[in-house]
Design a protein that fits this description.
This protein is mostly helical and about 180 residues long. The protein has two domains: about 90 residues, no CATH class; about 50 residues, no CATH class. The chain is about 80% helix and about 0% strand. It has nine helices and no strands. Helix 2 runs parallel beside helix 4 and helix 4 runs parallel beside helix 6. The protein is globular, with a radius of gyration of 21 Å.
Length: about 180
C-alpha cells in the first residue's frame, strides 16, 4: 500500500512539474536573448545564427513550459527577433521566410496566451511585418482594422486610424496629401 502511494505521488509530482522549466533552462534562454539583442541594440550587428537559435529555443520553451511566467515574454521576443531577421535578410527568400516565421510566432502567442497584456500588440506586430517587410498593404490594413475594431478605446487606435490613411501611398501621393493639408 505504501509503495502504491509513493508511485502515485511520484507520478503526480512529475506531472505537476511537466510544464515548469528548470532555472537553468530559463536562465540559458534569457542569456541567449540578451546576447542576440545586445549585439543588435549596441551596434546594429545581427548574429543570424544566435538569433535563430534563440527563436527556435523560445518557441520550444513556450510549447514545453506554457505555464512558466517567462514563456510569453520569450515567445513575443522571438517574434520580434524574426522581424529583425526579416528586415535584415539579404535575399528575398530569407526575408519572406523570416517574415512568415514572425507572423506564425505572433499567432502562436495569441493562441497560447490569450489573456496576456501583449496579446493585442500581436496585431500591430503582424501589421508591421506585412507593411514594412512584405509590402502587403492589404494584409497590414486588415491587421490594423482588427486591432481598431477589437480595441476602440486603446491609446494606439487613433494612431492606427491615421496610419490607415497613408498606408500604401507612394512618396508623391504623400507629398500631395501634405500639400493639400496645408
Amino acid at each position: 500500500m505504501i509503495m502504491v502511494a509513493a508511485v502515485l505521488l511520484a507520478a503526480c509530482g512529475s506531472k505537476n512539474n511537466a510544464g515548469k522549466a528548470t532555472r537553468q533552462e530559463a536562465d540559458s534562454l534569457v542569456a541567449a536573448y540578451r546576447y542576440s539583442d545586445s549585439l543588435f541594440a549596441a551596434c546594429g550587428r545581427i548574429d543570424t545564427a544566435a538569433f535563430n537559435d534563440f527563436i527556435t529555443r523560445a518557441q520550444a520553451f513556450a510549447e514545453t513550459h506554457p505555464q512558466d511566467t517567462l514563456a510569453p515574454d520569450m515567445l513575443y521576443r522571438a517574434g520580434v527577433g524574426s522581424m529583425i531577421l526579416a528586415k535584415a535578410a539579404h535575399t528575398t527568400d530569407d526575408r519572406a521566410a523570416n517574415a512568415r516565421r514572425a507572423l506564425a510566432i505572433f499567432r502562436q502567442f495569441q493562441e497560447q496566451f490569450p489573456d496576456h497584456p501583449q496579446y493585442r500588440l500581436c496585431y500591430w506586430q503582424r501589421a508591421i511585418v506585412y507593411d514594412d517587410v512584405l509590402g502587403d498593404w492589404r494584409s497590414a490594413e486588415a491587421e490594423y482594422r482588427d486591432f481598431i475594431n477589437r480595441y476602440p478605446d486603446d491609446p494606439l487606435t487613433p494612431q492606427f486610424q491615421e496610419y490607415l490613411k497613408i498606408l500604401g501611398k507612394s512618396e508623391s501621393e504623400l507629398e500631395t496629401m501634405l500639400h493639400h493639408a496645408q
